[in-house]
Request: fold
Amino acid sequence: MVDRRTVRRLGGLLGFVLAAGLAYALYWRKNPSPCPYSQRVWIDLPRPVLTRSRLRKLLAPQPGERVLEVGPGTGYYTPSVAQQLEPDGTVHALDVQRPMLEQTRARASAEGSKNVVPVQADAQALPYPDDAFDAAYLTVVLGEVPDQDQALSELHRVLKPGGRLVVGELLPDPHFVTLETLHQRAERQGLEFDDYVGTRFGYIGRLHVPDGR
Reply:
């Protein structure tokens, strides 16, 4: 039988672990950064709400289009979108971490997608001219960018007039961006909100660049 002293010690240990976990989550939220490559197993798990089919439905990729993916991670969505663009369209998969890009390249190749272009760069300074893409998307990524307004401004810049932008967010990601926050920040950068699927705890939203800029 467990005595009271042991129960108190276990309770104290559990409390310490929970407090440390909460402190780490709060620190990570205030100091956004990409998910480290060493923790890639977490970003490769199935994603309720943020399914591949829902992403494709809102993004509506068409054959021949040029699409930008920001923060592909290990390529969870990349081949699925790339296949919709064949035979002449391309997905530019952009990430700040080269190991993630190597994983994305390998995954796309294994699934038969030859139209994926890995690019190492920062979402806050996209290495493309204005009006370079028909559409762009990022899932569970926006909150990891230190300057989200700058990232949205850059996405607005590289998208063609009428270009689509799809953003996915899901709790319990410590960098979770609420739908309301996304709406406000996107509007500040001249993007117009169209629609979303999901709930306040997880959603995929679609925006677009106005035709008249």
Residues 15-29 have pLDDT under 50 and may be disordered. The beta strands are 66-70, 90-95, 116-120, 133-139, 159-170, 192-199, 202-208. The longest strand covers residues 159-170.
